[in-house]
TrEMBL record:
Gene3D superfamilies: Immunoglobulins (2.60.40.10), Single-stranded right-handed beta-helix, Pectin lyase-like (2.160.20.10)
Domain of life from the UniProt record: Archaea
InterPro entries documented for this protein: CARDB, DUF3344, EF_Hand_1_Ca_BS, EF_hand_dom, Ig-like_fold, NosD_dom, Para_beta_helix_rpt-2, PbH1
UniProt-listed NCBIfam families: para_beta_helix
SMART domains hit by this protein: PbH1, PKD
EF-hand domain boundaries: 1168-1188
Organism: Methanosarcina acetivorans (strain ATCC 35395 / DSM 2834 / JCM 12185 / C2A)
Boundaries of every PKD domain copy: 305-384, 393-478, 897-964
Taxonomic lineage from the root: Archaea, Methanobacteriati, Methanobacteriota, Stenosarchaea group, Methanomicrobia
Protein name: Probable pectate lyase C
Molecular function terms from GO: calcium ion binding; metallocarboxypeptidase activity
GO biological process, one term: protein processing
GO cellular component, one term: extracellular space
């Protein structure tokens, strides 16, 4: 493109777009003809908010020393940067916040970090990184539409939270594609292919969201090192509307995993079973059946937000406070407001307010962003601020002294704000103006307490300041007879200041030593971390008799978010010495106290970094949840279990129904009163003979949650819950857990009490209703007592928000909360759900239990945002543990199926092998395919070979209990004559079935002999000789001379010659031999063809295509006119599926009726004796009908 034309067009574009007035675009071309020849020169001349456009060429390294600079290349195929890109410039500790890099190929790893300067909110898009060591992101970054290929170590290293990684390709990295040492990162719509590891978690944080990615052909999926994140989302956290194979659905979407081998029975593109991410990193509950680009995510991909905003007011006088309202569309996730368009971000709130203190016209810039991109809206001269209007003055004053003997001369000093033109002093507040000077003096002649009033005025108004009882005048020579003193300052309770709340200060033992009654006694309280001169609060004792003592409670409203500091409180009585005393030195007391979190309160609110009882596992399945907690007798007190503890669960404790699939099994191991050195228990745990823990629980194999009171007598006595995934070690017949002190040392490692343990089993079973299961985990100690614990009922509440799935409330049949708590009861604790009181004094355990209380919460259920509250009461304290919400749905009536299918390929030369795929909806249970050439199948996804040319119409009929439907595709398969001398050898039928000790015939067929056949020497093999063998060969009539290997055998050769030239030029579908195959034992085997010699009538060799076949050996043989042998669907010994199609229906009753005599003569009678009378009769048919 002509550079001059491009510059003109680009300048016009910048003029059309509304941009900041001071923003400028610079141009760089290494060949000359632009503003600069190097990128660094352009950067050095640019200002915040500018754009640097880079033409095609090769450039050296550069560094960014200013914020909000966009550096845009002409494209990664045209612009190459050889050298390190520093963001920010390391030599100057610069600020490079908001840098945008795009459209270039980068050959050296960029240096993006905030250690040597300021960098955040970086955007890198449309770039190619080829052959680097790795791409390191040390600051939060939007990384979109890039290609990382052939890196010698890692693809992308994430070392800062809150990054967005979207629409990238990461391929052929030797180590890992994405290396996580970050939290709350979104990884979406990426191709992650052919790397050493797809994901490497190194002490990664929580809340990383990884979904809608294509993850294929990596040597390994995950690798971990260090602390395992407690929760990683491998699918979307909210339902997504998407189109798949022409049908629109709404549901959760995960990732495409190339090693996932699940099925998709309903054809919605989401696997029927979950994908377990290796190394205990979680589960993709909704894996994709195809790469994500085969799904059209309706309205979400990609959607770049469009910035828009309003403000109120937009004009006024300084100082002007303006409320800004974001009206952007496209679901932005971040906001950057520049209220003066000076390149400095003033706020990142969505709807902020801002005060303009100076007059002027202000341009406002809002930049919004989400995972798909960003956009800015600039409103020029949007806020107009005028010079402030004249205002009346604000009165204030001071005086020295404020007390003394009569006559008392006092000097008054004006401290008013604003312009003052007149003063009116009323020194005794009697309504008479005593003085009009600015700073007067006045002498009080008479003993008493005086209120002073100052009124100031100017042309715009007036204001008054009244100070009540400000001047105290005493009698000269008066002898004080009373003395005020304070005994102590106390903090209630336990002399600890609690973080994250106001605190009560106790001024204890205030005594009036004397005979006179004293009134209006002021008590100030000072906090050392607030001010030494301004009290945090003041109280007044209205009256205290001579010889009397009182104690008062004063609230310090200061909120301290973090523990760890020390606060010294000082209480001062009569701070202004208004009351004559015999001793003024005993009017104050101080106490230094530590700032602590209150462990008896809910951790999520009252402990910095503390967590609510949050969702760790979710399941949406047909199945259920079972749990069993050991009885109170399993509790072991501190030091009382040195010889070990064994807990045993029988099969009846966890009765998993037959036919179920175990999804997950969790062991919940809870403890209390832990005093082990170092703060963590050291234990040996053996589950079903397998060591699952041997050492410190904090670094072991489980997930550990802890809490402790943090103050008082039992400040460091710890409560805990450790959770183990024991799915692979669980046995339906019974389980045991053996607990011993580590290394057998009870003196060192027995200093912990053990709650009874709990096993939780989640299973799938198609006979069960659909359930959504939320499992929340944490440990939160709760206690209610204002005097002992410093708590109220509301504060001693642990909250359990249930997240990760939306609930279809209109279809819910039951909603049950299983709330586990330690030492809860009896008659202890309230249960809240979504703010409603469900039960009071509900738990009925004791100090040795950890079992669940069960609550019906259906009537309180919301679609999202459900939250339980476990509220301690005044019964001694309890320990909130795991909380499990099970939502059961009504069993819906089956819908009629809607037939549909696809095929691959739909055209080609004969013989043409076609794979048919059922895409029907409505959960069909049987399928009947008519391939249009006389062949059919009852498989769901069959394969079929068309041996002759022609156009074939295919019909699929599907059926379930609700009805049936068919899909007819006319001339769907187009088969052409094979070109040249192509010949295909195949088996007819391709897939055969035979009963044990029975035999069946299979033809060996050639599709076409364009030049005739003179003879053949072939081999046929069955790959599993234990299943079947070939017992006989029948040659066609034209085969006058034959030879074959010894029979029976599973691998044979056979040869013959066409002496009479019977197989002529153009012969089609020629049967070369008929094989008799005998079934040996139940199973399946593959048949294959080999060619030693195959020649046409000219003696030329024929190079055929070879198709394989299968043979299935069943216990029974098919009924006459049926393709498959009967099947026992429910395992009760009776073979109700007479047609062998995998379903019991009326068709099977008809087949039984038509073949009663044949069954009696050829089948074991006990397999078909449905009425149990030892014979085959009409009553068996009646009983079968009753079964339906």
């Amino acid at each position: 493109m002509n550079k001059r034309i491009f510059i003109i067009l680009f300048s016009l574009l910048c003029t059309v777009l509304i941009t900041p007035a001071e923003a400028k675009t610079w141009y760089v071309d290494d060949d000359g003809g632009a503003d600069f020849t190097t990128i660094q020169s352009a950067v050095n001349s640019a200002s915040s908010g500018d754009t640097i456009y880079v033409y095609a060429g090769t450039y050296n390294e550069f560094a960014v020393p200013i914020p909000y600079l966009t550096i845009k290349g002409e494209g990664p195929d045209l612009v190459t940067v050889n050298g390190i890109i520093d963001i920010p410039q390391t030599a100057t500790y610069a600020n490079a916040t908001g840098t945008v890099l795009e459209g270039m190929k980068i050959t050296t790893a960029p240096n993006i970090q905030s250690v040597t300067g300021t960098a955040s909110d970086i955007t890198i898009r449309d770039c190619v990184f080829d052959g680097l060591t790795s791409v390191n992101l040390h600051v939060n970054t939007i990384f979109e539409n890039n290609i990382i290929i052939n890196n010698t170590n890692k693809g992308l290293e994430l070392k800062a939270d809150n990054s967005i990684i979207v629409n990238n390709t990461i391929k052929n990295s030797k180590d890992s594609a994405i290396w996580f040492n970050a939290a709350n990162t979104t990884v979406k719509n990426n191709h992650i292919e052919s790397n050493g590891y797809a994901f490497y978690f190194r002490d990664a944080g929580d809340e990383n969201k990884i979904y809608l990615n294509t993850i294929s052909n990596n040597s390994e999926i995950t690798k971990i090192r260090g602390t395992l994140p407690s929760i990683t989302y491998w699918n979307s956290t909210t339902p997504i509307k998407y189109t798949y194979n022409g049908t629109t659905y709404t549901g959760y979407m995960g990732n495409y995993w190339s090693d996932y081998n699940g099925t998709d029975s309903d054809g919605d593109g989401i696997g029927d079973t979950s994908y377990t991410v290796p190394n205990d990193l979680g589960t993709d509950n909704h894996p994709l059946m195809q790469p994500f680009e085969n799904y059209n995510v309706v309205g979400s991909g990609p959607v770049i937000p469009v910035s828009s905003f309003t403000a109120s007011p937009t004009s006024g006088y300084a100082s002007l406070t303006v409320q800004f309202t974001d009206e952007s569309t496209g679901s932005p996730t971040s906001w950057a407001w520049d209220f003066e368009n000076d390149g400095i971000i003033d706020s990142t709130n969505q709807n902020p307010s801002f005060t303009y203190t100076s007059a002027g016209n202000y341009t406002v810039n809002l930049t919004v962003a989400n995972a798909d991109g960003s956009d800015s809206e600039v409103k020029t001269d949007y806020i107009v601020v005028n010079e402030p209007l004249p205002e009346p003055p604000v009165a204030d004053f001071t005086a020295t002294p404020t007390s003394g003997d009569a006559p008392l001369m006092v000097n008054f000093t004006d401290a008013s704000n604003g312009t003052v033109s007149s003063y009116a002093w009323d020194f005794d507040n009697d309504g008479n103006v005593d003085n009009e000077e600015e700073n007067p003096s006045y002498t009080y002649e008479t003993v008493g307490t005086y209120t002073v009033n100052l009124t100031v005025a100017n042309a715009d108004g007036s204001d008054s300041e009244v100070k009540t009882n400000y001047i105290t005048v005493t009698q000269a020579g008066q002898v004080a007879t009373n003395d005020l003193s304070i005994a102590a300052v106390l903090i209630s309770p336990s002399n600890v200041v609690f973080a994250r709340e106001a605190n009560t200060i106790v001024a204890y033992g205030i005594t009036n030593s004397g005979t006179e009654n004293l009134t209006n006694i002021t008590v100030d309280v000072y906090a050392s971390d607030v001010s030494g001169t301004v009290p945090v609060n003041t109280e007044t004792i209205s009256s205290l008799a001579g010889g009397g003592t009182t104690t008062i409670f004063i609230t310090d409203p200061t909120i301290r978010n973090l523990q760890g500091s020390t606060v010294t409180y000082t209480a001062v009585i009569d701070p202004d010495n208004l009351i004559p005393e015999t001793n003024e030195a005993n009017n104050n007391k101080s106490r230094a106290v530590p700032v602590k979190y209150n462990g008896y309160k809910g951790k999520g609110l009252y402990w910095e970094g503390g967590s609510n009882i949050t969702t760790k596992h979710t399941f949406d399945l047909q199945g259920n949840l079972l749990y069993s907690t050991m009885p109170a007798t399993a509790y072991k007190s501190v030091g009382a279990w040195g010889s070990g503890r064994t807990e045993t669960w029988t099969a009846s404790d966890l009765p998993v129904p037959s036919g179920s699939t175990i999804e997950k099994v969790f062991l919940y191991f809870a403890y209390n009163w832990d005093q082990t050195a170092g703060g963590y228990p050291w234990l040996n745990l053996s589950f079903n003979g397998n060591i699952i823990e041997n050492g410190n629980l904090s670094t072991g194999n489980g997930t550990l949650y802890r809490d402790w009171s943090n103050f008082g007598t039992y400040a460091d006595y710890e409560y805990g819950l450790c959770v183990y995934d024991v799915t692979d070690r669980f046995s339906s017949s019974g389980n045991s857990l053996v607990t011993n002190p580590y290394d057998g040392d009870n003196n060192l490692y027995g200093k912990v009490a053990l709650y009874p343990s709990t096993l939780v089993v989640v299973y799938k079973n198609s006979n069960e209703t659909r359930k959504q299961i939320f499992i929340n985990e944490e440990c939160d100690e709760l206690g209610v007592s204002a005097s002992s614990y410093g708590t109220t009922l509301e504060e001693a509440t642990a909250y359990a928000p249930f997240t990760g799935m939306s609930i279809e409330t209109g279809k819910v049949q039951n909603a049950t909360l299983y709330s586990f708590a330690g030492s809860a009861g009896s008659d202890e604790g309230n249960l809240l759900f979504n703010g409603n009181i469900v039960a009071t004094n509900a738990w009925q355990g004791d100090s040795k239990t950890s079992n669940a209380q069960v609550f019906d919460v259906k009537s309180y259920l919301n679609e999202t945002g459900n939250e339980a509250g476990i509220q301690g009461t005044t019964s001694g304290g309890m320990d909130a543990l795991q909380q499990i919400l099970v939502v059961e749905y009504e069993k819906s009536a089956p819908a009629e199926p809607v037939a549909d299918f696809t095929a691959t390929p739909t055209s080609g030369d004969a013989p043409l092998a076609v794979n048919f795929t059922d895409t029907s909806t409505g959960s069909p249970t049987s399928w009947f395919w008519d391939f249009g050439d006389g062949a059919n199948s009852t498989e769901q996804n069959p394969s079929h070979t068309y041996s002759a040319a022609g156009n074939y119409t295919v019909n699929l009929t599907v059926e379930n209990a609700a009805g049936s439907d068919f899909e007819l595709k006319t001339d769907y398969i187009e088969v052409s004559e094979a070109s040249g001398s192509t010949v295909t050898l195949y088996f007819d039928p391709e897939n055969s079935s035979v009963a044990e000790n029975e035999s069946t015939e299979i033809n060996l067929v050639a599709s076409l002999f364009p030049a005739g056949l003179s003879g053949y020497n072939l081999t046929v093999a069955i790959d599993d000789p234990a299943v079947a063998e070939i017992v006989d060969i029948e040659y066609p009539s034209w085969a006058l001379i034959t030879q074959n290997s010894t029979l029976p055998d599973s691998s044979i050769y056979l040869k013959t010659i066409d002496l009479e030239d019977s197989v002529k030029e153009g012969a089609a579908d020629v049967v070369l031999a008929t094989l008799t195959v005998s079934g040996k034992e139940s199973g399946s085997a593959n048949l294959s063809i080999g060619v030693k010699r195959l020649e046409d009538d000219s003696g030329d060799s024929i190079e055929p295509a070879l198709l394989a076949g299968t043979i299935e050996v069943t216990l029974l043989s098919p009924l006459p006119d049926q393709e498959y042998a009967p099947r026992d669907l429910d395992g009760d010994g009776l073979y109700e599926d007479l047609t062998g199609n995998g379903e019991f229906s009326f068709v099977d009753i008809v087949a039984y009726f038509h073949n009663m005599d044949w069954i009696e003569e050829n089948m074991p009678v006990e397999y078909f004796d449905f009425n149990g009378n030892g014979r085959i009769d009409f009553d068996d048919v009646v009983d079968m009908f009753a079964m339906i």
